[in-house]
Amino acid sequence: MRGKQRSDVVEQARRLDTVDLRVPADPAYLAVVRTAAAGLGTRLDLTLDEIEDLRIAVDEACSLLLAGRAHPGRTLDAAFEVGLIGSQSLAVTITGPVAELPREASFSWSVLRALAGDVITGADPDGAWIKLSVPTTPGRAER
């Protein structure tokens, strides 16, 4: 049983590349995270609309995790799990300094849920996190 589990992990690692980004927990650095998201979307050959949706979804998630203010000495961490070229998969896990996320009935949540295929949230001692699984349409790049 152990061998099978290990091979599953190895196989998953072969299908994904992970890009980790850590920026100061300050709204002034959100442009860096948005730009990274757009660059990875381009690498996956997403359409221009899909790239813009990804940028907005990542921005909304980051904003929720910062609660609209800087957190000196803390970081905002984004882990982009990028499927290998041809798989068109992308998941983004963003961890921020807030201990608790705002209620999910807000406009920001509505935007986030409309743009991301699947949204999972949680919290741990280091702060709250949001994971976005972004829907993509392979082979329709607008250039």
Can you characterise this structure?
The structure is a single chain. The protein is globular and about 35 Å long. Helix content is 39%, strand content 27%. Mean pLDDT is 83; it is low at 1-13. The protein has 143 residues and is an alpha+beta fold. It has four helices and five strands, in the order αβααββαββ. α2 (30-43) packs antiparallel against α3 and α3 (48-66) packs antiparallel against α4. A hairpin with a 6-residue loop joins β2 (75-83) and β3 (90-95).
Task: Tell me the helix content.
Answer: 25-40%
- Would you list the SSEs in sequence order as H and E? HEHHEEHEE
Alpha-beta classification = alpha+beta
Principal-axis shape equals globular
Q: Give the number of helices.
A: 4
The proportion of residues in beta strands is 25-35%
Span from first to last CA? 47 Å
The main sheet orders its strands as 1-2-3-5-4
Number-wise, the strands total 5
**Mean pLDDT, nearest integer?**
83
* Unreliable residue runs: 1-13
- Computed CA radius of gyration, to the nearest angstrom: 16 Å
Q: Largest sheet at a glance?
A: 5 strands, antiparallel
Describe the secondary-structure layout.
Elements: H1 2-15, E1 16-24, H2 30-43, H3 48-66, E2 75-83, E3 90-95, H4 107-115, E4 118-124, E5 127-134
Antiparallel strand pairs: 1-2, 2-3, 3-5, 4-5
Helix pairs in contact: 2-3, 3-4
Question: What would the keywords be for this entry?
Answer:
about 140 residues, five-stranded antiparallel β-sheet, 5 strands, alpha+beta
